[in-house]
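Sample intake sheet
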Amino acid sequence: MGEDWTNCWLGDRRRHRGYIHDGAGSSGVAERGTVLFVHQVHQVVGTEADRFEDAFREGWMGSLAKGSDARLLWYFNLAHGSGLAYRVITVTAVEDGAAWERLAEQMAWGDLRSWARHLDVLQHRSTGRVLTTLPWSPPPVALADVPTEPTEREPVMYMEDTMWPFPGKLREYIEAADAVYRPALGAEDSRMQMHIELALQTVPGAGRSPEVTLLQQLSSLPRLLHLLTNDLSEAVVGPGSWMHQALGLRDQWRSKLLRTAPWSPLP
């Protein structure tokens, strides 16, 4: 575990300790700790895809609604033709580490044990990460405001980018992404019409290190199609561009195209 990664994470947590978003565009200090995001990739049994989705819609979302310290935020399907088949991504928010410990105990020995065993039958395997927001991330929706009843809506497309900064470059990468990449997304002439919903980093010991993930909602499918079918222009990759500058901080990343389920709590 690199010193840069650990120090960067600890520094961010010290600056933002006790931060709880109240859903009204402001922040306040509370006794609670840092909100955690549990990101899981599920390799679903093909013949059990519908039952797997039902298990999250009826079981997981409903069970979390009985308490106040955890909520399912998103249920994504990996878009057809963009990767491995029958892959589902779920993102669950818990209010702090203590809440995550209680939830894990429920799954191991408590009320959620039978649900977890049922889920094991419906998937080949799953991998998980625990993440926290970057200092400049848009604030997450307050847990109390997350819907707990299925509501049908049109699916929404997301691009999930996960980057692995070079050793010793994590803090510099996070600061550069804030100063250059984030404003570029909001520019009127942006080559991609999308906005960041959450900017996250993996908690030390809870995934690959160092690692940054951006969950970005797409608002223009024609722009996405153009990106997929054309080479990037010199203006995008040449000197002075974000693509060129960021190569000194990382040169490996993974992009996934995700589609929300119609009932996903957040669009």
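Comment: The radius of gyration is 19 Å. The beta strands are 19-21, 27-29, 36-44, 70-78, 87-94, 123-133, 157-163, 194-202, 212-218, 253-260.
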